[in-house]
Amino acid sequence: MPKIFSDELYLRLIFFGVVFLGLAFWETKANWRQNLLNRQVRWLTHLGLGGLSFFLVRLFFPLLALNTAMLAETQAIGLFQTSPVMAHLPLGLKILLSLLGMDFAMYMQHRWMHRYAIFWRVHRVHHTDTELDLSTGIRFHPIEYFFMMGVKILAILFLGIPVMAAFIFEVMLSSFSLFNHSNIQLPARLEKYLSIICVTPKMHRIHHSDIPFEQNHNFGFCFSVWDKISQRYLAEAHQGQAHLVFGLEIYRAPAFQTLQRLLALPFLRHKALKPHRNKTVSFL
Ligand SMILES: [Zn+2]
């Protein structure tokens, strides 16, 4: 049976559906800020883009994350399989370290997306969203999904990630992507404690600000530690959360928000496409 129809696909779709519907319910009942654009139109566009990307990755990638982890386990590839110390760690610790390692790889991938003009062309599809809700979490161009999968595969092979950890990470990454972009307000105390370990919607929406300095902070997907140790953590927007403006200045027009335009965006030439840089000191 082709990999595209494997059990893993169904399990991941179930997890995705539950998280999506749960957050959608939360957004409907108590949102952080009233969105003005038509939700159905936005969701159709984003589900179209995310669905197309997901399908193309499964169709064209010879090895997906789970297949790669199986290969690493059976062929003894990577640190967790070959290092005398790491190979004998308890499975729970291996999984925790694997999740941290994979999240760090994704974090670096996101930093490169902003740092290099050629990658920014692709990643700006995600940043041109003028409003934020859970559906922004799947608004990525197929090329970015290809790039993410490439980075994941390299990280899995380097670390020798256990199959179970690769599956958990895939579910965790897609769940956090929906959660971080969702238009919800966590209770203050929960926000305070959760943000010590995890990326929260409050933290990530600062990254979607149209102010370059803010865009160059809070790159994390799942764990907040990477931004903190690389001095890229911003706890609050300069003008306050209520005044955050999302999107990129030249792409605010509704004409830029259609599925066709989003697919074409990486190939459009425009002067204002260079990534914004700043002088923040960072070890990364
Ligand atoms: Zn970004």
Polypeptide structure, described:
This protein has 284 residues and is an all-alpha fold. It has one domain. The chain contains 13 helices and no strands. Bound molecules: zinc ion.
Number of strands: 0
Rg calculated over all Cα atoms: 19 Å
Number of structural units classed as domains? 1
The rough form would be described as globular
Quickly count the helices.
Answer: 13
- Helical content stands at 55-70%
Strand content: under 5%
Major sheet: none
Write down the overall mean pLDDT.
Answer: 90
Distance between the termini: 42 Å
Order of secondary-structure elements? HHHHHHHHHHHHH
- What small ligands are held by the chains? zinc ion
In the predicted model, the low-confidence regions spanning at least 5 consecutive residues are 277-284
Structure class: mainly alpha
In short:
The chain has helices spanning 7-29, 39-60, 65-75, 79-82, 91-115, 117-127, 142-159, 163-181, 188-197, 201-207, 212-215, 225-229, 259-264.
Topology record:
Elements: H1 7-29, H2 39-60, H3 65-75, H4 79-82, H5 91-115, H6 117-127, H7 142-159, H8 163-181, H9 188-197, H10 201-207, H11 212-215, H12 225-229, H13 259-264
The protein binds zinc ion (ZN).
Zinc ion is lined by residues 110, 114, 123, 127, 207.
Kindly list the characteristics that best describe this protein:
284 residues; mainly alpha; 13 helices; globular; disordered C terminus; binds zinc ion
